Every structure is written in C-alpha cells, then in structure tokens.
Amino acid sequence: MDHRAFAEKMVNGGLLAAAQAEPTRAGAGGRVSWGKHFLAASRLTPAAFADLMARTEGLPRASLDAMRRGTSLAGEFSVPFLHEVGLFPYRDADGSPRLAAADPFDADAIDAVAVTLGGAVTLEIASFEDVEIALDAAVRAEAGEGTDGAGEAGRGEDAGDNSDSLRDLASGAPVVRALDEVFDQAVALRASDIHVEPLGRDVQVRVRVDGVLRVIPAPRAAPARALVSRIKILAGLNIAEHRQPQDGRMRITVRSRDFDVRVATMPTTRGEAAILRLLDRGGRLVAFADLGFNARDRSVLTDKLTQPHGMIVVTGPTGSGKTTTLTAALASLNDSTRKILTVEDPVEYEIPGVNQSQVRPAVGLTFATALRAFMRQDPDVIMVGEVRDPETAKIAVQASLTGHLVLTTLHTNTAAAAVTRLVDIGVERYLIASTLSAVVGQRLIRTLCVDCRRPVTVGPSDAERNPRIVGLGLAPGTAIFEPVGCERCGGTGYRGRRAIFECLEVTEAVRREILGGADDAAIERAGIAGGMATLVDDGKARCLEGVTSVDEVFRVAALR
C-alpha cells in the first residue's frame, strides 16, 4: 500500500490535517511506522482505523477470533520483530497462510515475512491491538501458559526452557500497559503495597490502602505469568526460575512521582505471586513533634534522645511506621555538632547531613559489618534499621555502652516484649538493663474521613454489652465518631493513617524487673506504674478526639 495515496484520502475525508500527512520525526533507526503515525494523528480507535484501511484499500479485514482460531506461524519469526512491524502470520482452517497486518504500508517487512512463508500469502488488515493480543496468545501457548495453573510452581527441570518466549510475552505492549495501569491505580489510591496473585491463568490484584487490602480491577490483557514475569524483569530477577522465592528492587515513576519498589516473589500451587512495596522517594520527612505522641511520651523521648548514650528501640509489625518514627527522631538530632550514621534496608528517607548506608548482603555489607565499621567513624548517634541476629544485637549494645546513642527496631507485639526478644537473641539481661533507655511500641490506625464521619453517643446498653466499648472503658453518654463512607474516602469511611504509641521508659523499677528475670507482663506493669499508656489507652484517646473509631483501635491493638 502507498502511504502517500492513503494519506491523501484521509486528508480529503477530513480525518487527517494536511500538516499531519508526514511525521515530525522518525522512530528508532530512522524507521517510520506509517500505520502508527496515521492512527495517532487521526484520533480513531485502533479497530475503526483498521476498518478504514480495509474499506479504503479493498483488503479483507481480519478478526481477532479468526486469528486466534487459526494456527499461529509466529514461531518462525522473532516475536519482537512482529510486534514492531505489526504483523501476525497464521494459517486459516483450510491451511492457507494469511498475514494480518496492522501497518500494511511497511512493504519491506511484509515481503520478508511472505518470502519466509513461501510467497503465496493472503494479506489482511488487522488492528494494532488485535495483532498484539494474537501475538501474546501465541507466545503464551508456546510457553505452556495453556496448562492448568496447579503445575506452575512445581514445574520440573525444564522450568526455564521457554524463558525467551516468556520474556518476549512480558515485554509486549499489552503486558507493559497492564502493569503500568496497576501502578497508576495503586498510586492514585495511595497504596503502600501491591499484591499480584495468580488464579490459574487469571490474576487477582489487591492493594493495601491505609493498612487494609482491597481488590482492584485486574488487567484483562495480561495473564498472571506474563504480569509477574514483567515485574521480575524490571526488578532484575531470573524469569526462568519459578520454584524458588526471589527478592529484588526497581525504580519507577508514576504520576510524576519517583518510587523505590521492593519486590518479593513466591511460588504457589496456582502459579507465582509477587508482592511489591512502594516507597515514595519524594516523601516528606515527618517532624518529631508531628508524630502524635502524647505529652508524657514526647517528654520522655525528648529526654532520652538528648542523652549522650543509651539505646532506644522502636517495636511493631512490618508496616507500622517504625522507620518514620526513627527518621523523625534522627532529624530532630541532626545538627553540625553531631555525627550521625545509619545502616538501613533500604534507605527510605534521605536526611541531609546524615551519613546513610544501605545493606548489601551480596557484597558482605550487613547490619553487623556496617555497625563494626561505624565504630571507627567517630559517631555520636547510630541508627540500625533492624536488629535481626545475635551479632547485630551485641554490637549495638556494645556501641551504647561505649558512649554512643543507638536507635534501632525490633519486631515484637508490645514494648515490654522487646526485653524478652533481646534476651532470646543472646543479649544478657544485665547488659539490657544497663543500656536500654526506652522502648516505643506503635501501630498505624486509619483516621476517620472528616467529610463523612458520624457522631454517636455511647448508650447504656453499649457500655454494658459491647465488649469493645467495655474494653475501652467508655461510659454512657460519651461522644465518639463512627465511619460512614463517601466518594472522597472510597466508601471506606477512613482516609489516611496516624500512629498510636506506648512508650516504656526504663526506670529503676523497670530495670529491677529486667534484672530479676521478669516476664513481659511484669515489665509492662512496672512501666504502667511509671506512667506508660498502652496502645489501647492511646487509641482510646484518639477515639475521644474523633480521630478514629473504636473498631479501628481493636483492629490493630489488643487488650492485655
């Protein structure tokens, strides 16, 4: 087909401006895809543009159904080449070779494919979308995607035999667009995590928004294996390995915002799943005063942070805001008189003036090795992203004993349990009692949507029969708020999160309990006697302020 004659017909038909008859620039290697240029300039849909070409040039119009029912001949060519030139070769039910072309103006590509197929080929017109879908389906079939999902995770030694085909499929435009759409939806919803979960050949996508998972529309153009493979390619993982978990990282830009993405894959009986954690590189540092501590806890921590030595531990589950709290504390200490060093996994917030390092186990840089090196760097304050092993714990304790302020995190359910956890990983109780200054336990609670929250009053029956009302000790007549749901909050009744805390100050009474071998409960009682408010106590205060609901407090914290 002559692109000039077709352009003239489009101009005469009012579908193309005369100035748009020629592209302003060529593509890669100086090549012009006239079909893509005319499609973009005309503002027609791909299907309508294909209909126009077939009607104008008197060529048959290939349907996606016919292309998929036919026998694909794509395996005789480079699939990326076919994607680039917009061609799909196949045999129809009669065995006749056909060539569906989305860009029939590329005579060189059409001739090359026709020669390979033997010359006698029927040329048809197809849309770019249909060609991409047909090519992806052909690659998927060749890669074994048509088998049931149950065999996906436990495939034998030939798990990587089709890795090239799988890579081609994962690099195809529909899969690329599908993953971009997932990222866009996640960022629009303010999601912290994306869960891509296989359901056989289909896929379920869930995002964690304000700490709670919700399902979002799954991309229809991308099967589970292709979508996960695309994620693995971007994260630098081995796409041929489906039997072992893998961890990786990538950087993406969505809606003009830069994100670091931590990726973890896991084989399941239905296929390979991928979890992606989004870390906003442009995230604003939270000021220590804005974290939300009550007056007593803020006073205790301010005092401990200004001490020249000691250890402050922040505890809580993954995703409870521990790093945000530590970073805010460091930022409050950051001035020209202090040398502050951190080792993190990964560095989530960059603090000007602070020397931050990221662990790299592949080259031997672990928390423990970094800590040992820090001791030769003349630091005043050291932050360790997490105490995971006995070696790291012991070096951190030694650092605090030798005149350094150490900040770190542990995974425990309560502040008092941090003592037991340190004992479990090999730190002697006398060392804990000598070095530990304070432990902060925290959780993130969803905050009520201010546009739709509803005030309610605790009634007599609520105060007697509702165990959660009873647990918080809310008396009849107490005014609180409950969620409703509106367009602004996506119907959930909540929008945004904030932290609730419990701050265990290691007083002389608490220190005696630690040295005496007391359990978590006894240490907690000593802390409460010294003025500590538990997570539930802090949650109750937030309920009375109208910040959150009773149900939300008990979603993240338990009565003890």
From TrEMBL:
PROSITE patterns assigned to the protein according to its UniProt record, in alphabetical order: T2SP_E
Source species taxonomy: Bacteria, Pseudomonadati, Pseudomonadota, Alphaproteobacteria, Hyphomicrobiales
Family the entry assigns: Belongs to the GSP E family.
Name of the featured protein: Type II/IV secretion system protein
Superkingdom of the organism of origin: Bacteria
Record keyword Chloroplast present: no
Residues that span the membrane, as ranges: none
Region (Disordered): 144-167
One MF term in the entry's GO annotations: ATP hydrolysis activity
